[in-house]
Amino acid sequence: MRMLLLALLAICMQTVQAQTSIKGTVKDPENNLVPGASVVIGKTKVSITNDKGEYTFTDVPAGKHVLTITFIGYETTTRTVTLKEGETRVVNVALTSSAEQLQHVEITGRKESGYKNTNSFIGTKTATNLKDVPQSVSYVTKEMIQDQQAMRIGEMVKNMSGINQHTTYDDLDIRGFRTQNNSQVQMVNGLRTITGFWKQPLTNYLERLEVIKGPASALFGNTSPGGVINRVTKKPLAERRQSVSFSTGSFNAFRGLADFTGPMNESKTLLYRLNLGYENAQSFRELQFDKNFVVAPSISFLPTEKTRLNFDVVYNRSNSRLDRGQAVYGNNDIYSVPISKSLNATNDYLNEDNLMITTSFNHQLTKKLQFNLAYLKTIWEEDLLEHRTANGYAKDSAGAAIPTLVEMQVLIRKRKVFADNVSAYFTYDANTGPIAHKILAGYDYAQNKMPWGAAQSQANGYKNAAGTAATAYNAARPANFQYTTVNGIKMPVPNVPHFDLTSVSPYQLFDMSKYSYVKTNYDPTFYNAQGYYVQDQLTFGKFQALLGLRYDRFDERVNYDKATETKIVQDAFIPRVGLVYTIDKHVNVYATYTEGYNPQTTASMNNPNAGGPFDPLISNLVEAGAKSDWFNERLSVTLAAYRIQLENVLYNAGDATNPELLRPIGKVESKGIELDVKGQISPNWYLTAAYAYNDAQITESTDKTDLGRQSPGAPKHQGSFWTKYTIPNGVLKGLGIGGGANFVTERNVDGNKVQTLPAYEVFNGALYYKIDKFQLQLNMNNLLDKTYWIGGYDYLRLFPGAPRNWMTTVSYVF
């Protein structure tokens, strides 16, 4: 027995002695250890450095091997190692900072991965480290989008400070100001576009979503005073990457996504990317559904080091129903009606087509001079049929409200909108003594046009005595209307049947031929904006300054394409001043002042009943804060304090005869503090957190009861937290867990002075398991099954959040 044990021991010792391995550390140019660096042998063996910057390979065959070491912000480094049988080799690596020049136009894809994004164009129109931008910028990367399965803008913004949904539409509040009321100015790759307002489409084609907080008119012209949302599309990469994923979950949801990218030729001068998406899902809201199809190809041509060209397309086809929200009764009891109950009919539909085509060009004229040109064409088409609330309760014969019955109306609408944006500018690098300059000068032109052909048919009101037409009910003229008796209550006969909030199954396929309609052909609309601007980014030692000035001109054609056509012209000079001071390599502090300007069109494309003309929105921002990077620049922290003043803001007028009429209220002042944290604490531990305090009060109004009231839809406190950790080794290697929560405090409902929505907090979680190139993922949202409301216009149009729901995803990378 002893001899057998000795023999086994000898065999084990020989095995240990015969084992070959490679280990070592990775450090940066300042001799700091680098956790999270990728060390690769050949194409299959990969090791990620731990918190001490260490990596290890065991069971490496004897022979010659090439180690490739990569980490964001540093040059790719290689080491060649020849191993003998049984040898353990120590290979320590010192990285060198990357000499790669930042792009002046975002033409090739972002190489950075994870929750942190270092550089952006949104703050200065040049590739600038966000730490050096003297204004707060929030963002969500594609990696966070994937981890949370957040495929809508509204689902993403909960991860940003100071931004929340006003409704479930493409309708947000930023720092207390609603974006929808500002001509729906949106940005795609830094260019102005228009998208459908009613539905938030799939966003699997996005590299990241980013928001520059406060007025950004000095950069982009007329924009929202609260901030500008920019959607950055995925661009081609010079390396081959392919992935597909399939998801299924609550409410009969199915989703399939694909992302392919790589070079199209051996010289890698022609790159491509193709994103595909398909979704077919029901909803917790009755009769609601979404069918979406997304095709988003992108091609980059890099013929020389001096010339770059990108062609980018996003096409989204959406079939759904328009959800106008939940109506309640019982003295405004928001719990009186199930959150699942919508006010639709089974023959309703909303079909939308959205096409965005972008071409961008960058050419280096000299070593210091660059020229940039970009063009975006947008085409949006709407085909709508909806049964919706008429924004009031049904009336009895005396004109008193019947609070369990909702007045209804029908809208049938078709329209198409075209938008164009051209942006051309030069950048020049210069020095005046010890001061370095990056000078930018450019011109923007944007136009928006709705041609002839847009039309709407509307049915509402109550049947006249002859039954040939319908009008608003007038109890003082009872002989002018037909009557019926329901549950012992005498009431006028509605043109469109009332919706009974107490009915268990109120949904029908209505005979719409019995309704009386008023048909309206929309007049064409046209407006354009053009701007001339200059900017200088100065660097002097630890100080950086940003100086900008823009002249903007806004032209609107009233009675466009008619003999009575007239032009309204508004213009403004818009300054911007910012200062950044570097305290040390971790921390920058900044301060900024900028003004904002946003004309309010006479006939809004999305709401022709709003009234007008209105004076332009005039705003200004004072902001100061600090930005820092920690854990070897893997984790970023931004702290900002601000004050925004806005004049001529519009609120609902509360006119019973025209519920969509707006009124100017004077001035709103928004003050607050924001905190954003994003990145990694360790190579396998990701984190994002946000908090905002926002005091947005009406300070001037013709109605004195408005004074001191919090701006509609804006919570005073709002925040979120999300973290993900993946086990790096052992029997549970590849298993990850994620979790977080978001909260919003009480909000006023639109322009109403007494209707409010309660505060809420929602907890979410996720599990991940990665096996080689496969990943299995389970997301659970609203774990505690909280009943809550995202936002709303009034107690007839509330937008509840989803109850507890889940989504499973299988993805494969190859």
Automatic annotation (TrEMBL):
InterPro entries assigned: Beta-barrel_TonB (IPR000531), Beta-barrel_TonB_sf (IPR036942), CarboxyPept-like_regulatory (IPR008969), Plug_dom (IPR012910), Plug_dom_sf (IPR037066), TonB-dep_rcpt-like (IPR039426), TonB_sidphr_rcpt (IPR010105)
Main subcellular location of this protein, as a coarse class: membrane
Coiled-coil region(s): none
Domain TonB-dependent receptor plug, residue spans: 130-228
Signal peptide range: 1-18
Keyword line: Cell outer membrane, Ion transport, Iron, Iron transport, Membrane, Receptor, Signal, TonB box, Transmembrane, Transmembrane beta strand, Transport
Localisation: Cell outer membrane
Transport among keywords: yes
Residue ranges occupied by any TonB-dependent receptor-like beta-barrel domain in the UniProt entry: 303-783
Gene3D superfamilies: Carboxypeptidase-like, regulatory domain, TonB-dependent receptor, beta-barrel domain, TonB-dependent receptor, plug domain
Pfam families: CarboxypepD_reg, Plug, TonB_dep_Rec_b-barrel
UniProt membrane topology term: Multi-pass membrane protein
Assigned protein family: Belongs to the TonB-dependent receptor family.
Protein name: TonB-dependent receptor
Organism: Chitinophaga horti
